[in-house]
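Subject: Transcription termination factor FttA

B.,
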Amino acid sequence: MSKVEQQLEDLKATITSELPSDISVSDVKYEGPELVVYTRDPKKFAQNGDLIRKLASQLRKRITVRPDPDVLSRPDRARKDILEVIPDEAGVTDLDFHVDTGEVVIEAEKPGMVIGKHGSTLRQITQEVGWTPEVVRTPPIESSTVSNVRNFLKQEREDRRDILEKVGRQIHREEMSNEEWVRITTLGCCREVGRASFILATPETRILIDCGDKPGSEDVPYLQVEEALGAGASTIDAVVLTHAHLDHSALVPLLFKYGYDGPIYTTEPSRDLMGLLQLDYLDVAAKEGRVPPYESEMVREAIKHTIPLEYGDVTDIAPDVKLTFHNAGHILGSSVSHFHIGDGLYNVAFSGDIHYEDTRLFNGAVNDFPRVETLVLESTYGGRNDYQTDQADSEERLKEVINETYDKGGKVVIPAFAVGRSQEMMLVIEEAMRNGDIPTMPVHLDGMIWEATAIHTTYPEYLRDDLRDRIFHDDENPFLAPQFNHIDGGEDERQDVADGDPAIILSTSGMVTGGPIMSWLEHLGGDPDNTMVFVGYQAQGTLGRRIQTGWDEIPLNGRGNRSKTLSLKMDVETVDGFSGHADRAGLMNFVKTMNPRPEKVLCVHGDESSTQDLSSSLYHEFNIRTFAPKNLETFRFK
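Prediction pasted inline below.
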């Protein structure tokens, strides 16, 4: 009998001994990081709401209780009983019964009313019908991404259960080494922005943190995967994704092409956004005549292997590693990833991309950890002069630019990332129009912005407290304001907007590296009455950075891929303060307010001067050992 089998037998015996004699346990299995307990008495389990909590605390494991299929009531009868328990105001839109696991997925407009106070309604559902309820939100804005992901995972339930059981056995396998050390290898994003990728290794485990591309790079964007991983991708035990932006997520599916078959840990919204952005990444590559690094099937494999975690949940992801996600304040679902290694041996936190202060969209990044010996810290705005304008001042300046352009009869074009900055802009513009600070006019959303916004409204619990409450309780969803128009009519609609009255256009791509923004440049760039406003980071080598620094002869691909040049006459403005990244002060304060502070900091994800400036300042200010590593360096700790 393997160690895992013995563990499960012991756990079954322990659980049985702790339960009342009238509650049976028919089987115990690992599924990913969770322990699943099967019982013929789900209704009795549900009658005692403390049972599962006490077992989870005693065993120090996340526990799910499922009924044996042969004790379930029929789905048609269960449907009627469940709908009698749930209040009508919850807005149930679908019930989906899965006999193999005894679960019923309840989709509702107001999931909180299905859950009930402290889970009381969920327990009542199980008491009535025996089925284990799982609750998901009905998106307030219809999202093809959310719908496609949910339907795909529904179709792949059997494969996914096999994956989860395999992962669970891997997590709880016997440790193979008596050595104790921790290593971090930098695969990308060192002294550069983009290509975020790291290996966290112990004698037992290799974990890949992020696997992104480099925006604006002329080189093959995935060299770090081929060189550093190659056929060794199958030796990785787990992938952890801090957030869905392509400079962190684009190349995750490539791992499956190289033989990876393990889990991806990220938050639920990051999973959905990852799929959206990766499929668009392939679409853009094809349109530009480039050979994509992987096929869309690999994106589906990545989604199928994803295990979503919630902020604050301490989760075993390897025999010697526990992972906890914390809000990073950067984009929807973005996470600071904290790794607890060994039995108190060492703690490492990867910041991913962070915003330390609250924004209109998100609460500020969390830096409250019991222990962190080494912090891997982004440095995008780590340079000594990288101080952003106060957000209130930035909003005033944006409103001034909009009013000035409106008075000229022109249009404002804002290149924006589909995820994060676009929604921030929508909130600023909606409030400014509602308060009369700028004239009410159409706000056209081009590219993936509308779909990304729909995903934001699906997960309001990840948004800033007051925004979440507006969506939850007040039915005042600002993203549904009537002035927002989704551009879905292609070039004809763009031409109509260009020929029409003053308007605001939010368009991808945020760094002007392709996508519909190129069409808006062609339509509007030659008119000095129009204004382009940069509100996000423009990486070196991108067309956005070149325009921002004064380029006015812009290369465009005409019909038939013939190159032509646009003489840019529209005004170009940069309004700082809207970035999803912490500025220099925010990065310093993130470290300053950590208690205890880390012993070592690796400054990454910034150009060479930014990483070195931040590294030097942290050392002198806080007497911490700091590094500005290069790519393909390895650091050993312990």
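The chain has a mean pLDDT of 91.

T.
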